[in-house]
UniProtKB/TrEMBL annotation:
<keyword id="KW-0328">Glycosyltransferase</keyword>
<protein>
    <recommendedName>
        <fullName>Adenine phosphoribosyltransferase</fullName>
        <ecNumber>2.4.2.7</ecNumber>
    </recommendedName>
</protein>
<dbReference type="GO" id="GO:0003999">
    <property type="term" value="F:adenine phosphoribosyltransferase activity"/>
</dbReference>
<dbReference type="Pfam" id="PF00156">
    <property type="entry name" value="Pribosyltran"/>
</dbReference>
<dbReference type="GO" id="GO:0002055">
    <property type="term" value="F:adenine binding"/>
</dbReference>
<comment type="pathway">
    <text>Purine metabolism; AMP biosynthesis via salvage pathway; AMP from adenine: step 1/1.</text>
</comment>
<dbReference type="GO" id="GO:0016208">
    <property type="term" value="F:AMP binding"/>
</dbReference>
<dbReference type="GO" id="GO:0005737">
    <property type="term" value="C:cytoplasm"/>
</dbReference>
<dbReference type="InterPro" id="IPR000836">
    <property type="entry name" value="PRTase_dom"/>
</dbReference>
<keyword id="KW-0963">Cytoplasm</keyword>
<dbReference type="InterPro" id="IPR005764">
    <property type="entry name" value="Ade_phspho_trans"/>
</dbReference>
<dbReference type="GO" id="GO:0006166">
    <property type="term" value="P:purine ribonucleoside salvage"/>
</dbReference>
<dbReference type="GO" id="GO:0006168">
    <property type="term" value="P:adenine salvage"/>
</dbReference>
<dbReference type="InterPro" id="IPR029057">
    <property type="entry name" value="PRTase-like"/>
</dbReference>
<comment type="subunit">
    <text>Homodimer.</text>
</comment>
<comment type="similarity">
    <text>Belongs to the purine/pyrimidine phosphoribosyltransferase family.</text>
</comment>
<comment type="function">
    <text>Catalyzes a salvage reaction resulting in the formation of AMP, that is energically less costly than de novo synthesis.</text>
</comment>
Length: 180
């Protein structure tokens, strides 16, 4: 019976749990709302099972990007018996921290992680909910590599087609559960 449940979770189509909100937060943008997936226990469990299937053998840590990468990253790490490390926006973690600043279209942003939370040589999966332009994911990967980690894969619940996120992550293994 346990295998039947596991198989059905792996096969569950999660697209029906993603709500499209046209013209939000501004005209011409379609926001992909994952809230319906989060409130449906079977869908959330299926998402974690499906994400787990993408994690390479030998992975030691899951690094989740703020904020929704925390939701899936912590659940995935717990499910797989791995550690979890949050990558946060600047100023959200107590010192000492390691940081990486990256360029935005109009300015800069910084991501941080607590110094000493990732050992040099650690095999880490970077996880976030959405791959859009790839800027935040690229910054997270660069930060992890800066502290000596090996980013073995970047994993996303969904990828927004046409925004070239994969191009920003060129040379890194990238997996997504769905492309919209």
């Amino acid at each position: 019976m346990e295998n039947a449940t596991s198989t059905s979770l792996v096969d569950l189509d999660l697209r029906g749990y993603i709500r499209d909100l046209p013209d939000y937060p501004s005209a011409g943008i379609t926001f992909r709302d994952i809230t319906p997936l989060l409130v449906a226990p079977q869908a959330l469990s299926a998402a974690i099972e499906q994400l787990a299937a993408l994690v390479p053998a030998g992975t030691e840590l899951i690094a989740g990007m703020e904020a929704r990468g925390f939701i899936f990253g912590a659940a995935l790490a717990q499910h797989m018996g791995l550690g979890f490390v949050p990558i946060r926006k600047a100023g959200k973690l107590p010192p000492p921290v390691k940081s990486f600043t990256y360029d935005l279209e109009y300015g800069q942003a910084t991501v941080e992680l607590r110094d000493g939370t990732v050992s040099p040589g650690a095999k880490v999966v970077l996880l976030d909910d959405v791959l859009a332009t790839g800027g935040t994911a690229e910054a997270g990967a660069e930060l992890l590599e800066q502290v000596g980690a090996e980013v073995v894969r970047a994993i996303f619940l969904l990828e927004l087609a046409g925004l070239s996120g994969r191009e920003r992550l060129a040379g890194r293994a990238v997996s997504t559960l769905m492309v919209l």
